[in-house]
Write a structure and sequence with these properties.
mainly alpha, Serine Threonine Protein Phosphatase 5, Tetratricopeptide repeat, 25 helices, disordered N terminus
Length: 618
Amino acid sequence: MPEYPSSARAPGCEWIRVALLAANIVWTTACLGGAEPSSKAVTAVLTALLVVAHFGDPRCATKAHIAGWLFVPFVAYAAANAAWVTPVGWLGWTDWLNWTQAALVFWIVLNGVEAPACRRFLAAVLVAVGVASALLGAYQHFARPDWLMLGHTQASQYIGRSSGPFGIPNSLGTLMALLIPPVGALALAKAGLPSLRVACALALVALAAGFVLAVSRGAWLSLAAAFVLRQLLAPGKRLGRRIGAAAAAAASVALLGVLIYALFPLMRERVDRLVTDVGEHSRPILWRGAFGIFLEHPVLGGGAGSFDTLFERFRPAGFLDQPLFAHCDYLNTLCDYGAVGFLLFFGAAAVVAWRCARATGLAGAAFVGLLAFALHLLVDFHLKIPALAMIGAAVSAMVTQQAWPKPTGSPGHPRPLARAAVFVFAAAFAVLTFAWTLPRSRAEALRHSARQVIDGMARSGADTSSQGDALAAAGAAFSRAVALDPANAQAWSDKAYAESLMGLARPADTVALGAAVVSDADRAVSLCPVRAEFWIRRGTGLDMERLWVDGGDCYIRALQIAPMRADGWYYQAYHLSLKPTELESALAALNVCLRLDPGLLLAQSLRQRLAIRLQQSS
């Protein structure tokens, strides 16, 4: 890393990339942490511009820090996994893009944000993001508990807990845990500008408030454990003093926890529930499923982004959640990418952590925050949230700069071949973004928005037969989505779903619409034959075409893939009910459905109708 005098002016290229990175982090955080499909296109463009700004700078062709190279094998492996291993390619490439963005942020901050003024500015932006997130969390808690960014409404299970700009309170909790140690170190420092210490003290109060209001047990325990572990790893102290300091830290943390428990009712409720449930209830189910997937695919994993799909084989009876992720980034990476991917990524992370563990001063305090972040990954999926992944990567890079500096010496002049190589990489990444990533992002945004319309009809109990215009608009959106990204199997399936519902609005066209449903569902199945929903859509289309026997094969295949899904048994029962001779079999399937989900209203209604039909026929 070049040595910059404290008074040296940073190069203009460096300020440009810092500004682009700051804009990317702020934007992505504000869009529910980057989880909203409609925001991913802007994030991808900002990342491409950041890459061009960095690798287009001739200075970047000099020797890069070795820590950045450690993550390149995983990014390459993840791309190969998304291309040739995963059964859910459209999800696999989204997952790869998230990993790649985080790795690029780490590389660029490590090698391209070197001037002290630029580092200070980036650090100030991260703290400002944290403070703003905490203030939004306070607004949620005291003014509008159901409020979320972008006009969304908070899920009922999170009411009372603050999530700030994120949709999940645990995301706010881990961001606060990441930032509190370094901000606290500056606020409590004996030296330094008084104005800086006052500003950091105010920021610390806001971050602490956000930390408490998130009511995230995992974040609380992770930060507490990080402070204790840090004392055990403290450099320059004898073992006895480190053990004593760790014991003192543990006692202080316990005392603070008791105080908050006594004064904050919501925390008391969350802790009491943890004790009542004897730990977690749903997470161990997901962890067992993730480990089961790994045991079936130990080397290469089930495939990038495949956990939610492959979990169906391990879903226990009565478990109704649609988890998406394993709620443990370590297990999620292990089951998605196998032992190879796990070792490539977390092995590289362990090397960097080992070299940074002896950091002191502000870097040492920031390392405590990173340690809390890493511990919280045991019970959540923060690496799947693009904003958190990028923020974690930026903080990691700044700590690495201080704790593991480049060898001193003249940086030298970039060689022509190296300079040409980085220019080619920047140009190729920009082309990839605009020609490949953006169409996929736009397609997924269209699909997601249209699917929300259809799902909203189901939740509201609207009469689908009177929703022809809305269904036609949704179908048009799905058609645009598959035109932009023909590899998005979920978009093909959703298009088939909209067409099948249109059969209720246009019963005279049922057979013709059924043919369209089958055609689109066939595309989905050919792209991803291991997703039960796609077989259900195909079966629905065949039923609409009056091909009852062929449709039955599809429902059987869906139940083989997801035997504990209540909705799969509902569709099987509906299919059987189309034949008067199979009413008893349909009722038997409904009984299984309602044992799995007693609250499924569609199944309750169908059972009542079938019972009446059986009575009338007897």
